[in-house]
Each structure stands twice: as structure tokens, then as C-alpha cells.
Amino acid sequence: MSTHFTSFKTNISGYELPEKFTFPFYYQPHAIAEIAVNELQDYLQAQPGWNEMFGLTPNTPEKTIGKMFGVLVVKNEDNDIGYISAVSGKFLDKTIFEKFVPPVFDMLTVESFFNTGMEEVSQYVIEINELENDPKHIAQLEKLKQLQNEMDADIAVTREKNVQAKRKRDEIRNDAKISVFGDEFSQLCTKLKQESENKRFFLKHLIQNWEEKIANFKATIAPTQEQIKKLKNERHAKSAGIQQRLFEAYNFLNAKGETKDLLDIFAATALQKPPAAAGECAAPKLLHFAYKNNLTPIALAEFWWGKSPKSEIRKHKNYYPACQGKCKPILGHMLQGLAVDENPMLKDPAESVQIETVYEDDHIVVINKPEGLLSVPGVNIKDCVHSRMKEKYPKARGPIIVHRLDMQTSGLMLIAKNKNAHKQLQKQFIERTIKKQYIALLNGVIKEDKGTIDLPLRPDIEDRPRQLVCYEHGKNALTHWEVLDRKNDKTRIRFFPVTGRTHQLRVHAAHQLGLNTPIVGDDLYGKFDNRLHLHAEFIQFTHPVTQKLMKVEVAPEF
After folding, report:
1. Active site residues
2. In which order are the strands placed within the sheet that holds 6-7?
3. What is the pTM of this model?
4. Is 438 found in the same domain as 358?
5. What's the average model confidence in pLDDT over 12-32?
6. Given pLDDT bands bounded at 50, 70 and 90, which one contains residue 1?
7. What's the rounded Cα separation, in Å, for the pair 312 and 507?
8. Among 54, 140, 311, 472, which has the minimal tally of Cβ within 10 Å of its Cβ?
């Protein structure tokens, strides 16, 4: 029996095992997996010093964040039901723990090529730093910078003098046109032309002298610069070689007993090459360990433990699916041969739901989009507002869809029946003259009565469709809000979005720098519920033809 196999402390005899394994990219944990999670969380809570390490105590250091953990309910060769546990990535600068399964490849073993290679890379770094930080070399670089500044200044002054001299010559020439004639005027023009040529020659000679002076100085520091460049190239080649060997060393089993390394797994993806830290997440570790030790996978659950990071939204104890960027290709291989639950995202939840028309004329339609219906066709589901409007209004021309709502968001949408109406309405969205209001129910109590959230957003390229707060590459996202009421540990709130970024209200509600309270039913940034409690209740716009100010409102069903 594996030393990492943990028997349940809880009596599970009354629980039925799932018929199929968990679909890891969108799931609600099976009851038996939740029991395993609770037992693991009790273990984490009881470890001395770990609460401080995960930021779960007051006065936590700023850089402290939590970790993703996972449990895999398994059956061993004796038909005993238990579970194994894993932590994503390195933990406490170690990879081997009594409680957690080991990595697929342990790069930190003393004899591993990784440690040996990184020591060589570190030596390159030391040599490069010594050369770059040598006082003599630094002084030479400063001298070079000074010379270049002096050159730029000298050339700029000379060019300005030439410009002023040209203006003076032009004035002399123009004045002479009315007072000097014949050969005398020709001689004057010849003299002025010669002065111009002399100025140009002087500037050209000045630039050549400076360039020669700087080139000679560069030659004195060239050997050091070339050595630094050579060392950096060798360091890069060494690092790339280590990375290549790492990718080859990470070999993953599947339920059929087949093995693939990271290079083979990602070769068929859009990325083609594995991203950094691929294979270090909890789910691949758990499945590989189970296959390797003749443990039959039954159910999976992954959760966040500790303080949330600054960019992405991770709530303490909340469940999260496996990531799309790193884990999806790997698990796509590892789940082969295993009976897995169907992907719920392939089902159309709004197939039997009708679209309510709130307003209609010859040019526009205002609809109340039901929760669960896409605005435009998705990768797997084609049923959407666009296709239904095309079917209902076959004579409509143009893009039809003016703006979008998330699949899980209900509420008001504008539909254009012709190109002109679409163009005029889109212009209003671009100029931000359209006013929108949303109603949301938050899973917690907001103490303040109103405020503004200004958090820039960008897509999480490793885990779409999630969004990240990013001050470096994110697009500005601004939301005003006010509390409507507080009841049963929940807050009903009205949002006034100024911008319209993807998932803007959901992220602004859930992020720790926003309201730090997810919307009820937000399966990306909060917890599952019967639906996402977010509704576009009000829209104000100028009619594209009549120019009449239109105000439309529909109350939410929650």
C-alpha cells in the first residue's frame, strides 16, 4: 500500500461512489471528495506555523499568498477507499513530503541534472555580474554616455547655428533683390552659397570627428562587452538546454498505461511548447501517482488555501477547476482510458428558454436575455442571441448584435435591425453616452453604502476565460456602485459600469482590491449556485433614428 494513501477518518459507508470520474475543468465536488478535502484542510489548519505562512493570521507579510491543493479519492488493490493529497508547485522549498504525493519528476534531488545545470547557470550569472559591476567598467560606460551626450549637444548647437545662419542669408538675399543688381547680385549669391556649403562641411566634419572619437573609446571597452555578451549567450543556451531536458523528463501516465512527455503533449496545441511550470499542478501529480501505484481514481477536488494573490481571484477554501493553459493538454492525455463525466459546458442550458422582447420598432429591438444564453456563438454551443435574432428577423441587415452580456448574466440587450441603427448605437457605446445599470446579489455583507472601483483588467492567457487585475498590461475598467439592501448575510447592490470590459463587474465584486465579495453563483470567481445573480436591469440611449432619449428597465428574477 502506498505510504501516501490516507484512509478516511470519517465513516463513508453511507456514501455512494460516483459512476464516473470528475470532469476536472468544470465540476461540483462529489460528497466523498468534499469529505477528503475537509480532512486535508483540518490537517493544514493544525500544522504549526502554517496559518502564518499562508497569510491566515493578522499582520501577514505583504508578499504572502496561499497555494492550490488537491485530493484524489482512490481505491487501492485491496479495494479500500481512501485519498491521496497534493500541493501545486514547490512548497517550503521542498518537493518531497510525507503528506503530499511527489512531483512527476523531482528536479531538486541532489544528483539531478537540474541542480547541476543550475549551478553552472549560477556561475555564469556570477561572472556576468562581476564584469558588469566592475568599477572600472562602470566608469567607462559613464564616460561613454557622457561623450555621447556631449556629441549630441555639440551637434545640436551647431545645427541650430546653421539654421540661424540660413535665415540670415535668406534675409540678406531677399533685401538684395530690391537694392543690388547685375553682377553684384550674382557675386553676393555666390558668396552666400559658399557660406552655406562651408557650414554643411563644418557640420559633416564635426559629426565625423565625434563618431571617430566615440568609436575609439568604444574599442577600449569592447573586449569586456564582448565577453559579457558571450557569457550571456552561453547562459541562455545552458538554460534552454536544461528546460528542454526538463520537458523530456516530465513523463505522464494515463489510465491505459501509456506515457507521454511534455514536449509530445504540447506539440499538437497552439502553444506547441510547454509553458513554464507545466505539470506541477496538483491534478496531474495526483493522477500520475495513482496510475503509477495501482490506485484507481474515483473523484477529484482542488481548492485554494490561504491569502489571495494580487492579480487573480482565489478565495480561501473555495474549489477551483484545473487550469486551461497548463493542465488541459496534460489531463487530456492522462484521462484517456478513464470513464469521465461529460463536459457540462457542451450542454445548452438555455435551449428551452425564450427571449422576452421588451421594446421593438422598425429599427431596433430591446430584449431581456435569459441567464444561460450566449450573446454570440461559442466554440461548442451555437445557440445564442445572434442566431435567434437572425431567425426571428430574416430581413435584418448588418451585425445585429450591438453589445454583449456574459452567458450567465441576464438582462437588457440592444439589437439593431439595420446597419445604420447598428452604427449609431455602437457610436454611443464607444463615446460612452449609453448608461447601464446592473443589479447583483453579493455573497457577503458590504459595510460601505457606495463607492467606485478602478481596477484594470486583462485576460488570463493561461486560464481563459478568467480575467486578471493587471496594472501593467490591463485595460482601464471603472465601476460605480451603491448598496440597495443587506439581508441574510448577503448584499443587494446596483452597479453603474463606466467601461464594459469582459467580466468587469464579476471581477470588481470578487477581487480583494474591489469589494472582495463575489456575486452569488459566480462559478469563476466565487461559488456555484443555481445561477449567477447578475442582471442588466436598466439601459438609457438615444434612438438611432428618432433621436428620442430611450429609457428601458426590467427587474431581475432574483
Report:
1. 406
2. 6-7, 81-87, 67-75, 296-305
3. 0.82
4. yes
5. 96
6. very low
7. 9
8. 472
